[in-house]
TrEMBL record:
Keyword Oxidoreductase tagged: no
Domain PTS EIIA type-4 per the UniProt entry, residue ranges: 1-69
Claim: Transferase is one of the keywords in the record: yes
One of the GO BP terms on file: phosphoenolpyruvate-dependent sugar phosphotransferase system
PROSITE patterns in the record: PTS_EIIA_TYPE_4
Species this chain originates from: Latilactobacillus sakei
The protein, known as: PTS EIIA type-4 domain-containing protein
Signal peptide: none
Keywords: Transferase
Domain of life, source organism: Bacteria
InterPro entries membership: PTS_EIIA_man-typ (IPR004701), PTS_EIIA_man-typ_sf (IPR036662)
Length: 77
């Protein structure tokens, strides 16, 4: 199962982490946002729109929250 939250460290993310941090079946992705999705959707009909840029931005700004926390914990040790 994948849970998508908007901001890492925000309330929805923290609530999900409290519940699913140790559940290996759950992946938590952060940094997806509605404006980015709406921008993409609303511009799909424009021939000159660079959809690939929005996709690259989304990929670069989205990450697995549990993996990020694990990496931070390893770095702190």
């Amino acid at each position: 199962m994948i849970i998508v939250v908007d901001l890492p460290g925000g309330m929805p993310c923290n609530v999900v982490l409290e519940r699913y941090l140790t559940d290996e079946r759950i992946t938590i992705l952060a940094s997806l946002n509605l404006p980015m999705i709406l921008e993409l959707y609303l511009n799909l009909g424009q021939a000159d729109y660079q959809m690939s840029q929005v996709i690259k931005t989304a990929i670069c700004n989205t990450y697995d929250v549990k993996q990020q926390l694990s990496n931070q914990t390893e770095d702190d040790e």
